[in-house]
C-alpha cells in the first residue's frame, strides 16, 4: 500500500514539474550561487542512511536540487521517503522537495535527487528534514 501511495505522489510531482517547465524563453537566468552544503549521515535509524552529496540550483529552471545517497543499513529490503528543505541565506525556507526509492536491499546504495519547485535566488542550503524507512 505504501508503495502505491509513494509512487502516486512521485508521479504527481513529475507532472507538476513538467507543466511548470512548459514553454521556453530566450532570457538567461541570473547567476544563482548555491551553497554546496553536504551532510554526512547523522543521527540514528533511517536518518543515518541518507546524506546530501550536492546542493545546487538547476540552470534551466532556477529551482533548487539536492543530490542524495541512500544506503540501507537495516537488515531488510526497504522503501525510503526523504523530505528535503531548501533555505536562503537568511535561513528562510523557499521550497521543499521529496525523494523516493523502493526495494533497496540491505547494504545497497541508491543515488536519488529531490527538487523544489520555486525559484531560488542567491545562496541556498539543502537540509534533510525527515527520512521514513519501511520494510518492503
Provide the structure class: mainly beta
Which residues sit in consecutive blocks of at least 5 with pLDDT less than 50? 3-8, 15-36
Count of structural domains = 1
CATH topology, anyone?
Immunoglobulin-like
Helical stretch tally: 1
Percent in helix: 10-25%
- Per the principal axes of the C-alpha atoms, what is the gross shape? elongated
Assign the CATH class: Mainly Beta
- CATH structural architecture: Sandwich
Average of pLDDT: 80
The run of helices and strands is: HEEEEEE
Instruction: Give the CA-CA distance, first to last residue.
Output: 10 Å
The biggest sheet amounts to: 3 strands, antiparallel
What spatial order of strands do you see in the largest sheet? Answer: 1-2-5
Strand-residue fraction? 35-45%
Cα-atom Rg, whole angstroms? 16 Å
Number of strands: 6
